[in-house]
Design a protein that fits this description.
Blueprint lengths: L2 H28 L3 E2 L11 E2 L3 H21 L16 H21 L3 H17 L6 E3 L7 E3 L4 H19 L5 H19 L3 H21 L8 H20 L9 H6 L1 H16 L12 H7 L4 H24 L2 H21 L30
Antiparallel strand pairs: 1-2, 3-4
Helix pairs in contact: 1-2, 1-7, 2-7, 2-8, 3-4, 3-8, 4-5, 5-8, 5-10, 6-7, 6-8, 6-12, 7-8, 11-12, 12-13
Length: 379
């Protein structure tokens, strides 16, 4: 592993994203891509929501530096197809750019959920058409046997990528939350990729870590800019792509748990939201105040403490995922039990499965309003 290369790319990604964030703010104000305070939002003043522009430019600059390094300084080229993979990286990049564009348009025009979903599917189809596929895994029940997905590799990969994009999008509800979780998830994939000798995935994961850290300079509470859908969808898709680069060449079934557990908190939050809304006889895309960060805020934690708690939970699951992938026997079983116990504790403690009525919460403080209370929600 060329650690100097990784260090340079990390520094470039951080610096480029920090430098471009003021530009993203100006573009957001010009296009009126602003989150104004209302009952669904926690911010109490208008905040620009086009941070994805800075994140995207940070990635582009980092990749440009990477290409310069590979051409003139002998750096590892992560875009070189090998180990039986034949990926059309231009088509893969087209899918990433398309996803960023969908998010960018949504930041400006507020697209409908159906239109956004169609755009996400098209983007994921472009990526899967590039040759990056989840095509087979080892049969966990029969030693030496494999499960080949055949033509189903394409819809499975599309579903995987769209799901990854949306879990990051849905968790983006507090200052710095999605940025931090994305950085932790990318760091986990980086660690697994290094251990599994997937150097291309490791190098690209470093870039994601860098842009997330750089964006946190302006996005951590009190945030002066939000990443918007242009950022959350972009980060979600690129995390999905890098995780596939890290695990798709490994036919081990257990390796698939690494990216899923690394993004475990938003995965759990999304799953609980779907169950909660079904129980309440609501559409699964209906907004509510039952997300993990809402529950923590209503319990009295500040925004910063809520974000730090969720980062810590994510980091714990991430560490468990690496230990599960790299160990076996009783120790692996013990780690799985620990991760499950912590997750179940949070689900029960925060009542994540309980239906939530929006009018039972003060939209500013996110604290429950007792029945019969006449608390003024406009305070």
């Amino acid at each position: 592993m060329n650690w100097l290369e990784c260090g340079i790319l990390l520094a470039v990604a951080i610096a480029a994203t920090i430098a471009c964030t003021p530009l993203a703010k100006r573009i957001a104000f010009i296009t009126n891509a602003i989150d104004y305070p209302d009952q669904r939002r926690i911010n109490t003043k208008p905040i620009p929501r086009m941070g994805g522009v800075a994140i995207f430019i940070g990635m582009i600059v980092s990749i440009a530096v990477l290409k310069i390094g590979t051409e003139f300084f002998g750096w590892i080229d992560p875009f070189y197809s090998y180990l039986g993979f034949d990926i059309n990286y231009w088509l893969l990049c087209a899918g990433v750019i398309f996803m960023f564009t969908v998010g960018l348009v949504d930041d400006i025009k507020n697209l409908s959920a159906k239109v956004k979903l169609v755009g996400q599917i098209i983007s994921a189809c472009l990526v899967s058409a590039s040759g990056l596929l989840l095509s087979n895994i080892q049969n966990p029940f029969i030693e030496g046997a494999f499960i080949n997905f055949g033509l189903f590799s394409y819809p499975i990969t599309v579903f995987y990528l769209v799901a990854f994009a949306n879990i990051i999008n849905l968790i983006d509800g507090l200052d710095g939350l999605a940025s931090g979780i994305s950085a932790i998830s990318a760091a986990t994939i980086f660690t697994f990729a290094v251990l599994a000798h997937r150097l291309d995935a490791a190098i690209l994961a470093i870039i994601i870590i860098g842009v997330c850290i750089g964006f946190l300079r302006y996005n951590f509470n009190p945030a002066s800019i939000f990443m918007g859908d242009s950022g959350s969808l972009l980060l979600g898709l690129t995390l999905g792509i890098v995780s596939l680069l890290a695990v798709a060449r490994s036919t081990l079934f257990i390796s698939l748990m690494v990216p899923i557990m690394a993004a475990g908190v938003p995965v759990i939050d999304t799953a609980m939201a779907i169950i909660r809304r079904v129980r309440a006889h609501q559409p699964i895309d209906a907004p509510d105040r039952g997300h993990i960060h809402h529950r923590l805020l209503s319990a009295g934690f500040s925004q910063r403490k809520t974000v730090l708690i969720m980062w810590g939970w994510t980091a714990l699951l991430a560490i468990c995922s690496i230990m599960i992938a790299e160990t076996d026997g009783l120790f692996r079983a013990a780690v799985i039990v620990l991760a499950a116990a912590v997750t179940i504790f949070f689900i029960m403690k925060l009542h994540l499965l309980d239906p939530v009525l929006l009018h039972h919460y003060n939209p500013r403080t996110m604290k429950p309003i007792e029945d019969g209370s006449q608390e003024d929600e406009s305070e």
